[in-house]
Amino acid sequence: MDNYSFFALVFRQKYIRRWGLMRNTLSENLSEHAMETAVLAHALAVIGNEYFQKSHDPDRIATLALFHDVPEVYTGDLPTPVKYFDRNTRESYKHIEDQAIQTLLSKLPDPLRASYQEIFSGGKAEEHKLIKAADKLTAYIKCVEEEKCGNTEFLSAKNATAKSLSDMHCEELDWFIQHLLPCFGMTIDEMQANNQ
């Protein structure tokens, strides 16, 4: 009997904590982050199609986003200040991440490898841009949620992430920020009353 551990490893994302250098009011794990990033990437793709006449494949983009951090089951969630400390660090981390992907793929039966190799390839530039935007957007939303709980630990991260989002020059993202992001600062009662 063959044993292939790829999916068991993917499910271990729930043990990888994010925001390791920050005091959190509510901890966040990699599984939660992957789901939120996939939901937002899907939304950005739909926004692009409906408002900007793009031809994104929302389902494909959501799938790519869902798997975007799976290599971290081997590498852990390296804090952003460390990951981007300098060019050498970033290149070294990319090499380690590529090795993690190859190790993960080796945990699949041969007939399945090509499909997952394609997912880990990151997709086309436009797809990657939307996934990166969704990834940053989840970070910003986390900062908003922490601030809402009275945690000032995330204020600096919130400002830096807001600048990163603005610098992306992504019309789908800009539309989301203008029309959908404000609700993340609301209470459940305010959300219920909104648009009624």
Question: Strand portion, in percent?
Answer: under 5%
Structural class: mainly alpha
What portion of residues is helical? Answer: 55-70%
What kind of assembly state do the chains in view correspond to?
A: single chain
Q: How many helices?
A: 11
- The dominant shape is globular
What is Rg? 18 Å
Task: Walk me through the structure.
- The chain is mainly alpha-helical and 196 residues long.
- The chain is built from 11 helices and no strands.
- It has helices at 6-10, 30-52, 58-66, 72-75, 80-83, 87-105, 110-120, 125-148, 155-167, 171-179, 188-193.
- Helix 2 (30-52) runs antiparallel to helix 3 (58-66), helix 3 crosses helix 8 and helix 8 packs antiparallel against helix 9.
- The protein is globular and about 55 Å long.
- The model has no long low-confidence stretch (mean pLDDT 93).
Topology:
Blueprint: H1 6-10, H2 30-52, H3 58-66, H4 72-75, H5 80-83, H6 87-105, H7 110-120, H8 125-148, H9 155-167, H10 171-179, H11 188-193
Q: In a nutshell, what does this entry contain?
A:
By secondary structure, the chain is mostly helical.
Distinctive features:
196 residues, mainly alpha, 0% strand, 11 helices
